Amino acid sequence: MASQKSRSTSLSTLAILALGLALCIQGTLGSIACENLNKDSCAFAVSSSGKRCVLEKHVRRTGEEVYTCRSSEIEADRLKDWIETDQCIEACGLDRTALGISSDSLLESRFVQKLCSSKCYDSCPNIVDLYFNLAAGEGVYLPKLCQAQGKIKRRGMSEIKSSGYVAPGPESGPTKPVKFTIAPAMAPYRI
């Protein structure tokens, strides 16, 4: 019994120390400007202003590929000064050298499976926030997609493939397509 209580206290102390170390490291980085990040830390980072960083590739006339990091117009919800951890990149099935920000990966069932896993969804708020907003832009509610991932995978994927336009049926006559829009949604906030 005493051994179990001691082990619990040790784990609590270790967790507090780890959190303190993470905050110290983040604090020592100071302000993050996307333009100052290199290829290995740009993708999935968030600047001090709350703008998401994107990696871009340019090819010079000589054929040499040059990578640059810049601020996008996409803002992160409640996050600033954030460089994503390697653990989250791996857990969520992402690639540090990803170029730009796109919802295309939400069409890949293997990626969605990793994104919806507890290792990613419950532990990586920056990535969940990003893909929550990308899914919302496609008219899909990420928690519902994750729920569908476990039940009816094909149906969840077909919801994303829809452009949001409804085409008239063959017998409906000369009607115009209807565009459905949704209000921006906030990602579930977890730390």
UniProtKB/TrEMBL annotation:
<dbReference type="InterPro" id="IPR009489">
    <property type="entry name" value="PAR1"/>
</dbReference>
<dbReference type="Pfam" id="PF06521">
    <property type="entry name" value="PAR1"/>
</dbReference>
<protein>
    <recommendedName>
        <fullName>PAR1 protein</fullName>
    </recommendedName>
</protein>
<feature type="signal peptide">
    <location>
        <begin position="1"/>
        <end position="30"/>
    </location>
</feature>
<keyword id="KW-0732">Signal</keyword>
